[in-house]
Amino acid sequence: MIEQEFERVFNAAPEVIAQAPGRVNLIGEHIDYSEGFVLPFAIDDVTRCAIARRSDRRVRVTSAQQVNELIEVSLDDIAAMRGEGWVRYVLGVIWSLEIETGLDIYIDGKVPLGAGLSSSAALECSVATALNHLFHLEKSLSELALLTQRAENKYVGVPCGIMDQSVSLMAKAGYALLLDCRDLSTRHISVDFAGADLRLLIIDTRAHHALIDGGYAERRASCEEVAKLLGVGSMRALSIEMLQSREPELTPTQFKRARHAVTEIARVLEAVKRLESKDFYAFGELLNESHRSLRDDYTVSCPELDAAVDAALENGALGSRMVGGGFGGSAVALIRDEDAGKVSLAIEKAFAAKGFTAPRFFSSLPSDGAKVIS
Ligand code: ADP
Ligand code: MG
């Protein structure tokens, strides 16, 4: 229990305990920077943090996932540090929320680290939720999302979008969060996989290919070039018909990059309709289209992701696609509960036959967002 662990390390009781989940994005990939929509849900794995105030200006932090490491700094040094290592995710939130009181902090996370399930946002949002409560900051969930994103962008130094923090803070069990990346408005979308005896299998391929050609920056720049050439603000403003009629003005690569963005934005909105009408087979087809678009037009897949998707589909998945930035990381597959063993075994076998590192599997239904638990 986190209370006992806190007391063992700090010889005092915590004043607040909060938790925040990791996430998986159902659909809407590589379109946050094109003012598109994303549709993530919170997984049931959470990161917890226990915090107590101190009477001096010291901040002491330890994590069950980083054994034997008690990090101690002064509040006065945090702004200048921007240091290395895991603790900067915690210090970044203290910095972003402008906390001016010393703290003892104990972290215990169940979200797998670095599997593409956003353990980083889970950690940031659990700390932000606890501090918001402890200091009566009265920040709204969207304010906390922007403040934790600021911590990750400006303090940790990772240029992430707003999706991970938004869903970790705002999610509701049984729903995915439709997030409009243009104005940051949100809508909860019912996702009743369990009612149809379905589940989302998450496959961590454990592959991490270096982006030889600066992959992310190149994709993003292509979309921005196309917007400029066609005189629109972003890919959001284009329909597929408009894009096709202007194809002669674009290079083949620019056209393919833009086609992914435009069709993916349309797929997210169609996915919402199909989920709301519980047409999960038709929803699965959108996952497949998304994967083909990411693989063939955006060219951000890799052999491990394709192998996972192909093996899932060959073994009865309703749909499957890579998730996240690509070139490694995770894939998802919508499968029948009864097929869970068969599908993961088939993926394991396909990986072994190709000499890939053995994958890891997770599964989750849409779960609740961050909360104070005591
Ligand atoms: P992801 O967010 O996909 O899991 P990231 O590289 O963005 O991957 O974030 C993972 C990093 O976040 C870890 O390497 C570690 O520095 C930090 N982190 C996440 N959870 C914890 C935890 N429970 N304890 C300590 N550090 C953590
Ligand atoms: Mg992360």
Distance between the amino and carboxyl termini:
13 Å
Care to count the β-strands?
13
Give the CA-based shape: globular
From the 3D coordinates, which CATH architecture of the largest domain would you assign? Answer: 2-Layer Sandwich
Helix content: 40-55%
Evaluate the radius of gyration.
21 Å
Summed up, the helix count is 12
Q: Major beta sheet, specifics?
A: 6 strands, mixed
Q: Averaging pLDDT over every residue, what do you get? A: 96
Bound molecules: adenosine-5'-diphosphate, magnesium ion
Order of helices and strands: HEEEEEHHEHHHEEEHHHHHEEHEE
Note the beta-strand portion.
15-25%
Unreliable runs, pLDDT <50, ≥5 residues? none
Total individual domains: 2
Task: Please write the CATH class name of the largest domain.
Answer: Alpha Beta
Secondary-structure class = alpha+beta
Description:
This protein has about 375 residues and is α+β, with helices and mostly antiparallel strands. The protein has helices spanning about 1-10, 75-80, 85-95, 120-135, 140-155, 165-170, 215-230, 240-245, 250-275, 280-295, 305-315, 340-355; strands at about 15-25, 35-40, 40-55, 60-65, 70-75, 105-110, 175-180, 185-190, 200-210, 320, 330-335, 360-365, 370. It is globular and about 65 Å long. Strand 7 and strand 8 form a beta hairpin. The strands form three sheets. It has a six-stranded mixed beta sheet, sandwiched between helices. It has a four-stranded antiparallel beta sheet with strand order 10-11-9-12. Helix 4 packs across helix 6 (about 165-170). It folds into two domains: about 1-190 and about 370, Ribosomal Protein S5, domain 2 (2-Layer Sandwich); about 190-365, Alpha-Beta Plaits. It is about 40% helix and about 25% strand. The model has no long low-confidence stretch (mean pLDDT about 95). It starts with a helix and ends with a strand. The chain binds adenosine-5'-diphosphate (ADP) and magnesium ion.
